[in-house]
Amino acid sequence: MSSTSPSSWHTVAIDQTLKQLSSNKDAGLSSQQVSERLQQYGPNELEETGGRSPWSIFVDQFTNIMLLMLIGVAVISAFLDIKKNTFPKDAIAIFLIVILNGILGFFQEQSAEKALAALKNLASPLVRVLRGGKTSEIAAKELVPGDVMLLEAGVKIAADARLIETSNLQVRESALTGEALAVTKQADLELPEDSSLGDRLNLIFQGTEVVQGRAKAIVTNTGMETELGKIAAMLQSVENEPTPLQQRMSQLGNVLVSGALALVAIVVIGGMITFQNGGIGFDTSRFEELLEVSLSMAVAVVPEGLAAVVTVTLALGTRRMVKRNALIRKLPAVETLGSVTTICSDKTGTLTQNKMVVQLVSTGDCTVAVAGDGYAPIGDFTDRHTSTQINNLEEYPELESLLIACAVCNDAVLQQEQQEWKILGDPTEGALLCVAGKAGIYKEKQSQLLPRTAEFPFSSERKRMSVICEVPGRSGNSGFPAVEGQQPNYLMLTKGSPELTLERCKGIIVCDRVQPLTQEMRDRILAENNNMAGAGLRVLGFAYKLWENVPPEGSEETSEQDMIWLGLVSMLDAPRPEVREAVVKCRDAGIRVVMITGDHQLTAKAIAYDLGIAREGDRVLTGQELEKLSQEELKQQVEQVSVYARVSPEHKLRIVQALQSWGKFVAMTGDGVNDAPALKQADIGIAMGITGTDVSKEASDMVLLDDNFATIVAAAEEGRVVYSNIRRFIKYILGSNIGEVLTIAAAPLIGLGGVPLTPLQILWMNLVTDGVPALALAVEPAEPNVMKKPPFSPRESIFARGLGSYMIRIGIIFAILTIAMMSWAYGYTTNPNHVGDPDAWKTMVFTTLCLAQMGHAIAIRSNTQLTIELNPLTNVFVWGAVIVTTALQLMLIYVPPLRAFFGTHYLSPFELMVCFGFSALMFVWIEMEKLFVRFYKSRK
User: Fold this and answer.
1) Which H or E run contains 468?
2) In 10 A of CB 120, how many CB atoms?
3) Can you tell me the distance from the alpha carbon of 781 to that of 794, in angstroms, rounded to the nearest whole number?
4) CA–CA dist 890, 150 (Å, integer)
5) Which of 221-230, 323-332, 538-547, 680-689 has the lowest mean pLDDT?
6) Which is higher by pLDDT, 68 or 910?
7) Closest CA to 183 of 201, 159, 165
8) C-alpha dihedral, 544 to 545 to 548 to 554, nearest 10°
């Protein structure tokens, strides 16, 4: 039926399109054609591929290597307890921990894929079409290529189509292209093949909305072949990569389990080896005892509380980020933000205010710079020629006339709501009201002085609008001088395209008098217009004409002639004032900022230069240029290009992939449907909370509640703090775990009878003694230089930057102190003269390990500062955790039911003091290390 590529209909003439689709613009398709094409192309719906089920996600949690080892330990422990006819409380406790960890992992990972559902909601439920020469209303899913759609204002477009006829048609495509302003469409165009999506003015797209005018269009693509369908396909093709934290936790699990199994083998085999009669033998009678030792070691090596502590830490980070206007949708993203190396940001509303602000005003004899932010009518005027501030408009009558035209030739409303100035209507017209208001010229007052009697509405063909106002009693003295001999009663004010408005003018105001508009003057005005446009400004031209009578309705072509030129007004979607500082902060932190926008390249370049994202002479890559590059060629360019303009959804996805191929860790912002695939592909997808579509929010990891770029930088800072704290408590937890393992392994090797710690006691240490202070360490405040360092590599090992060596070193010190105390305590409590339980040495080992961790928690708050140098009030939670955990530990010894359940023994005051004394040495050692490092660095 059609030989045209699904993406090339903008290159084809209307007649040729109708011919290729075998359709008729006045009759549409016949019922037989509809039936055949519905069978050929299927319904006009987005197709969904199956994702992972919740059950599958839950089962996957138990493939974690650490949980598998714990399950194995629980099974063996239960077998040994049942064999001894004892209740398997250790096995039950371990199984409960395994299930708890599995549930935590499930809730972290499970995120229903709602992005496609949100995409489907963009589809229109009903659409008016021509079929068999009759107009009918059908369900959108029944549309087929060749159908002729009838469109009017307010209609949501149900399929991609080629326009056949248009009448003043404007379509809002912001959700698809990122363009903030409605696009004026024209049917009679044939465009180049490489035209970007936003420049295909003869096409309309599914999911966009008609805001003005009427049209007739022939459907070219339906379902997954539409631009919306391509986005759905890309969305489903993007695979979720594990976050850096997930990768590091996986690596940690592999190392711990491998180390534990190696130690178990050494202890079991080494414990059974005997040396008799000069030979080596095996004493298998000790196998069960050694197996119990190895079970305790296996439980000791797995940080059972780590998953819960990490989850709570991320949740606390989420709460802090919400206070800074960043809503985290996926918990691991909190830490991931700290690894970001590149932020790809949209322009409109994120880097800019999404508010048009007038920058320059040019009249016949002066150019004026305008200050101020947003829509507030507050700001100064400065004469660019003399650099003097304008305080009296009477000295600049041409400027006053131009500003009156800005206020009167205007359909918007400027109003103040709760101390904030807002616009009702078009943002461009809002900017004109604002600049007039800065001079004390307000539409309400001017509308009374110059009441509107008629108008010529804006049309895409004329690219102008005019209003006709009555000037009772003000002829020749209204700020709009009359041509000699005129007796005007009406004033026509016109605004629009500078070139098209200027060519209809014959005069110009200079020194409050009308003079002939010479060719030299025209050239100078056009040159100024080009300079403004070249700086990325949007420029409007203003003119006026005086009438004795109201010009007849529909006479705009003849009436908008022989006008008098007033001047140029240029505006810009101004940058947010806080973004410049945020960009500098990014640079200091080693984070590169890249602008990716659907806007024009000149506008993008101007904003990028202003914000410091790009420098003079840097290249701007457009969507057309990008289209011609292979992925490998793009990869070679992404390191040099910081500004991309006129890009399509596919381009955003390709840019992210090219950056990731260099090992960059990419955060991507977006608000439209078109951004969803790139948001999902990015390491951190960031959606806009105010202007963002549901599709972009569902595909994202984080939502900016204020749509502000500076919030991303604040969130990245918070991410770094979270990652630093996670590293801090991993050092804290695993240092003691290594000490536990070495202590348990040493007991049989040095000839002590029995296992010093039961699996239940080890679980207590890992969950309570380690877990509670670790949670307190998770709220340690940020270091002052956290955003003065480059981001940590997302691919660095969890043991990088000294963490691994610290764990081993501190673990060995733990073990040496505890083994020394254990040797003494074993001899002391098993001495026949000892009054008390001979197994009390085991509880002394248990208590010493727990109390030593309290000193460790206090000392580890800083790697460089001594504890006495830190303000104790900066983290009162650590002191609270130490006091509470110590009290709980003492309860296990001195509360009989707890003592019976945990298998501890009563300790005398002297034995308890020995435990406190040995455990305090851990704190002393870490503080001495800090002093040594400080002394060593001072000598270098």
Assistant:
1) strand 464-470
2) 15
3) 22
4) 81
5) 323-332
6) 910
7) 201
8) -100
The pLDDT, as a whole number, for residue 46 is 77
What's the count of helices (H) and strands (E) in the chain, helices before strands? 33, 30
- Taking only the tens place, the pLDDT of each residue in 691-700 is 777 677 877 8
Q: pTM of the full predicted structure?
A: 0.71
Alpha-carbon torsion, ordered 338, 344, 347, 350, to 10 deg: -20
Helix, strand, coil proportions of the chain in percent (round to 5)? 50, 20, 30
Q: Look at residue 786 in the predicted model and tell me its pLDDT.
A: 82
Name the 3-class secondary structure at 372.
coil
In sequence order, the 6+-apart residues with CB closer than 8 A to the CB of 744 are 293, 296, 297, 300, 755, 756, 757
- Catalytic positions: 346
| Listed residue (674, 666, 706) closest to 690, CA to CA | 706
Q: Cα(248)–Cα(735) distance, rounded to whole angstroms?
A: 17
Separation of alpha carbons 490 and 471, rounded Å: 5
- Per-residue pLDDT of 574-591, as tens digits, reads 888 889 999 999 999 999
Backbone angles phi, psi at 863, to 5 degrees: -80, -20
CA 315 – CA 335 distance, rounded (Å): 10
pLDDT in tens, 698-731: 778 888 888 889 999 999 998 888 888 888 888 8
For residues 704 and 161, give the distance between their C-alpha atoms in angstroms, rounded to a whole number: 34
* Rg value, the chain, Cα: 37
Cβ count near 554 (within 10 Å): 9
DSSP H or E run through 897 = helix 896-902
Euclidean distance between CA atoms 639 and 26, whole angstroms: 53
Task: In whole angstroms, give the CA distance from residue 296 to residue 605.
Answer: 64
pLDDT band at 121 (very low <50, low <70, confident <90, very high): low
Looking at per-residue pLDDT, the higher value among 544 and 193 belongs to 544
Q: For residue 516, how far is the Cα from the chain centroid?
A: 56
Backbone angles phi and psi of 530, in degrees to 5: -65, -35
Instruction: Give the burial string for 451-472 (b: 16+ CB within 10 Å, else e).
Output: eeebbbebebebebbbbbbbbe
d(CA 266, CA 262): 6
Confidence of residue 892 (pLDDT cuts 50, 70, 90): very high
Q: Of 34, 37, 227, 20, which Cα lies nearest the Cα of 130?
A: 34
Which ranges constitute the DSSP H helices of 110-199?
Answer: 115-120, 174-177
Minimal CA–CA distance to 535: which of 606, 597, 598?
606
Place 812 in a pLDDT band, splitting at 50, 70 and 90. very high
Residue 333 C-beta-side C-alpha neighbours within 13 Å: 29
Give Cα separations from 916 to 380, 518, 746, 878, 938 (angstroms): 71, 98, 21, 19, 34
Rounded-to-integer distance, Cα 451 and Cα 470, Å: 6
Q: Residue 473's CB: how many other CB atoms inside 10 A?
A: 8
Whether the CB-CB separation of 423 and 413 falls below 8 Å is answered with yes
Between the alpha carbon of residue 838 and those of residues 213, 762, 828, 833, 834, the distances in Å are 95, 21, 9, 10, 8
pLDDT per residue as tens digits for the range 475-522 = 444 578 877 666 788 999 999 999 999 999 999 988 878 899 999 999
Q: Are strands 160-172 and 209-221 parallel, antiparallel or unpaired?
A: antiparallel
Mean pLDDT of all residues belonging to the chain: 86
DSSP state of 757: S
Exposure b/e, 49-79, CB count within 10 A at least 16 = b: eeeeeeeebbeebbebbbbebbeebbebbbe
Neighbour tally for 499: CB within 10 Å:
14
Q: How far is residue 400's CA from residue 393's CA, in Å, rounded to a whole number?
A: 6
Q: What is the rounded CA–CA span in Å between residue 621 and residue 638?
A: 9
Q: Are 502 and 522 in contact (CB under 8 A)?
A: yes
